Amino acid sequence: MRKRINKTYILIGGKRMKVEIIAVGTELLMGQIANTNAQFIARKLNELGFDHYVQTVIGDNPERLKKVTAQAEQRSDIIIYTGGLGPTRDDLTKQTISAYLNQPLIHDEVGMETIKANFKGRIMTENNLAMGLTFQAGHTFPNDVGQALGTAIEDDNHTYILLPGPPSEMKHMFNHYVADYLLDQYQNDIVLTSKYLHYFGIGESQLADTIDDLIMSQENPTVAIYFGNFMVTVRLTAAGKNEAETKPLLEDLATAINARLADYYVGEGENLGINEVLVEKLIDREQTIAFAESFTGGLAAKKVVDAPGASKVLQGSAVTYTETAKADVLNVQPQTLKTYGMVSAETATEMAENVRDLYQSDFGISFTGVAGPDDMEGKEVGTVYIGIAEAGQETKVLTPALRGSRQNIQYRSVYSAYFDIIKK
């Protein structure tokens, strides 16, 4: 199985530096576009070891931007702006912060050459020149995927970082330049190491209650719990002089947590996908899988194909949505369908067994149920039958109690099947 990566970062400046995000743009304030930049930056700041408590969204108004900056200075060491660096009349973030700090701007020569090259064969108006402005006494961040340069300056014990608004430009700039700038400016000999543990089939509050005493007794490592991608993640973060010092702290706490949550444990590593764990497990066991899907509509097969190594484990998939398709493609007996209905344990059993035979796989997995919005065959939304047929074993049917949106029911059903095979 491929080794999952946890993260080690430098702890900033001997302390947890406080960072504030200010997203600039009237279109954000009016709700016309989502503020995904702040979400991305916040996640990156957490990984880098910065404290981040406040985010602000403000329209393209210089006076309000100055007031918000003055407020941010009272509670934060570093202020990151995103947006307002473009060529239009209302893109005034650089000019506003320049005036506020009394720090002059200049045209970065290298950046200007790139901007002018992008306008070759087109008319370049005066306002486009503003995209090449940076702080004269500051630092320039190149824009490899756009035109507006980023810039940073230190002034009176604060650092001000100005980044473009288009998400593709901002993310590339942050990943390739800003993160290194922050570490170079503030790093010392203390490292911050994180370990990510993932659990399925348990709620966030139940998990937190199960390990509450471990959380309350810990200062180093710290423990954070959050829900995402239908799993609960526990992030452990330890501080020390080096990774050799932080690693045992993380391992000891992870062992104690997993001793209580072993029944729900999926795996370890940042950005872990349960589909990836399934494929890795099957590769390790030299086993194959096939799917018979009804209300999931091919989702189970799709998520397996998304994972590296899928070609080694996936034999095939059949989406049999109607009663006719279940009978003609999967050979579900007409009497079974007539007596028990399409949404039944009996139908799920035949679907799973027959798709395993059809594709000659080690596992045959079937999904039949009611994802909504309406009831079906007298069964309410959230009624699900998951057949799991394994070579040499008696077929079993999972009946998870599900609720929520159609998508929620589909994904939870698929992941429930994955998890059952992972835990074998």
From TrEMBL:
It comes from the Bacteria. Residues 20-185 form the MoaB/Mog domain. InterPro entries: CinA (IPR050101), CinA-like_C (IPR036653), CinA_C (IPR008136), CinA_KH (IPR041424), Competence-induced_CinA (IPR008135), MoaB/Mog-like_dom_sf (IPR036425), MoaB/Mog_dom (IPR001453). SMART domains: MoCF_biosynth (SM00852). Pfam families: CinA, CinA_KH, MoCF_biosynth. PANTHER family: NICOTINAMIDE-NUCLEOTIDE AMIDOHYDROLASE PNCC, NMN AMIDOHYDROLASE-LIKE PROTEIN YFAY. Belongs to the CinA family. HAMAP family: CinA_B (MF_00226_B). This is Putative competence-damage inducible protein. It comes from Aerococcus urinaeequi. The gene is cinA.
